[in-house]
Design brief:
Elements: E1 18-19, E2 22-23, E3 28-29, E4 40-57, E5 68-74, H1 95-102, E6 111-117, E7 127-131, E8 138-146, E9 150-151, E10 153-160, E11 173-174, E12 183-187, E13 211-212, E14 237-255, E15 266-272, H2 276-284, E16 293-300, E17 306-309, E18 319-328, E19 332-333, E20 335-342, H3 364-367
Amino acid sequence: PAANLLKRETPQFIADAFTDFGKWMDGWETRRKRTAGHDWCVVQLGVPGRIHGVDVDTSFFTGNHSPCVSIQATCLDDPPTFSLEGDRTGMAASGTQLAAVAKLGSEAWPELVGVSELKPGYTDCCHNYFKVDFNHRVTHLRLNMHPDGGISRLRVYGVGQRDWSSDSTHQDVDLVALTNGGVCLGYSDAHFGHPRNMIGLGRAANMADGWETARRLDRPKELKVDQRGILQVPGEEWAVFRLGRPGVVSSVEVDTNHFKGNFPDSCRVEACTLTPEDEVRCVGTRWRSGTWQMLLPPQKLRPHHRHLYGEAVLAPPRAVSHVRLIIAPDGGVSRLRLWGRPVPITAAPTNQQPDTQQSAGRSFIEAAGD
């Protein structure tokens, strides 16, 4: 079924797996088309936003991959609700489903990717990447096969974009959340997990769903602590985020969920306000420049614990656009939340496509499965 396109796991191939309708494939495979037209499906993104790239993965479809695809998109702020009819493997969409989808007019949606050739599902060519230049918020996609065949996974990359027009400036929101447009712009180490995971949906499913660094090799042979019990170590790791919208942070959440023997000893959070030009310069210097001010002073952390810090320990309130989480000496954090009120700031950076590979956006569709 087409729902396989959205699976978080990488595709697998089981040689002796068959169904009543033929070979079982870990993806979306349509029947050999014997009628007019082509096959297609409509996908609702897990996170609305601006799309910068797409990966159409044909893994293991080597004699039956779709020869070509195209992708269309739209923004539906009040989409209709569809009733799921269960597993329909081996069957076409029902008349009820087709009638419901027809109301969307998806065949007329703007085009993100024109009709483009796909490579077969061999390891060295199964990932078919397409750059997207579409400067509009997207909530839904239409994936078109031309004319039929198989696709294993669909990954859509970009930056989340919240509709702030209906939000009150007196209501606290998570300013750094992926769903609200937060972006990871840089980091010191991501050996076991990327720091962008920390701004994902909900609590982390496991350690892989968080940020974890390698063990630092400069840690002392014998560890010492200060009067607060915080380790005195020479090294630290960091990750920088642009907020989805500049705002005044009123509380910070640092969650070490699942990190039991590998949590950081301590953390602190710094913040600043940057223009787009400032941001480009800081990215170019790997964040060695920039005027950072303390938001959350160093705090001792506990394993597998949700740490909440309010105004009693935070610096006096001020509007910020970027934050830097610093952990010492190393370890893992599953989630970072920055609760506060969005505010307008003149010339504040917009969440355009990041200018570094370090900040590659998490898949919008993948986020839907959290």
